[in-house]
Amino acid sequence: EVQLVESGGGLVQPGGSLRLSCAASGFIFSSYWMNWVRQAPGKGLEWVANIKQDGSEKYYVDSVKGRFTISRDNAKNSLYLQMNSLRAEDTAVYYCARAYYDSHGSHFDYWGQGTLVTVSS
Amino acid sequence: DIQMTQSPSSLSASVGDRVTITCRASQDITNYLAWYQQKPGKVPKLLIYAASTLQSGVPSRFSGSGSGTDFTLTISSLQPEDVATYYCQQYYSAPLTFGGGTKVEIK
């Protein structure tokens, strides 16, 4: 059974940093593009970033470029999102999601339960 | 960036009704479109991809159609468990983008 379990969320002050993790199991992690998608409270879904199987390609939404870094450790079956210079508008539930296609352009067939990041003083 | 516009933003229908949700892309995305269902307090669930391919395990009352810029999600006979917000998503080009969502309620 495919499982994606996020961790690392919490309350952080504006300008602070946080590192999210996503532990994957039930599939060959190193064979899939992986994504982060977020959802602000009461709002819709927003794709944040994705990363190729070997980490050689990474894509970001403009609003996080230069502040967030996506990475992965295939030996640990884990996906990460390093978030720096956090802003109030980054407050959201962050989901880890697996890409269906072998491409940066894909939909998402499995999602984690999400981890809440709150940016507030 | 490709903008995805869903309509309506919300709807109320009776059990057994046929429900149609529309998603329009700001440019041609061929059939690179997916639909998700998000029940209150839950994780999004993939319903349809490639505009019309039903994800495994999804009830056959759900169907998708369209290509180019105009797409439709149809629930042929609305059930109480279909109460949710539905999102379309394009994956034709980065940044991947979602529609604003359509909230479906039972009348």
Descriptive tags:
heterodimer, A: mainly beta, B: 107 residues, mainly beta, 4-stranded antiparallel β-sheet, 0% helix, 50% strand
Number of helices of chain A: 0
Biggest sheet of chain B, in brief?
Answer: 7 strands, mixed
Shape of chain A: globular
Overall strand count of chain B: 11
User: Hey, which two chains have the biggest interface?
Assistant: A-B, 25 and 24 residues
Strand content of chain A: over 45%
Oligomer: heterodimer
Approximately how much beta-strand content do the residues of chain B carry?
over 45%
In helices, the fraction of residues of chain B equals under 10%
Shape of chain B: globular
Provide the residue-averaged pLDDT of chain B: 97
Report, as a whole number of angstroms, the end-to-end distance of chain B.
36 Å
Terminal-residue CA separation of chain A: 40 Å
Helix content of chain A: under 10%
What is the count of DSSP helices of chain B, taking H or I runs of 4+ residues?
0
Number of strands of chain A: 11
Provide an overview of this structure:
The complex is a heterodimer of chains A (about 120) and B (about 110). In chain A, about 0% of the residues lie in helices and about 50% in strands. In chain A, the strands form two sheets. In chain A, strands 2, 4, 5, 6, 9, 10 and 11 form a seven-stranded mixed β-sheet that branches. Chain A is built from no helices and eleven strands. By secondary structure, chain A is mainly β. Chain A starts with a strand and ends with a strand. Chain B is mostly beta strands and about 110 residues long. Helix content of chain B is about 0%, strand content about 50%. In chain B, the strands form two sheets. In chain B, strands 2, 4, 5, 6, 9, 10 and 11 form a seven-stranded mixed β-sheet that branches. In chain B, a hairpin with a 6-residue loop joins strand 4 and strand 5. At the A-B interface, strand 5 and strand 10 of A face strand 4, strand 5 and strand 10 of B.
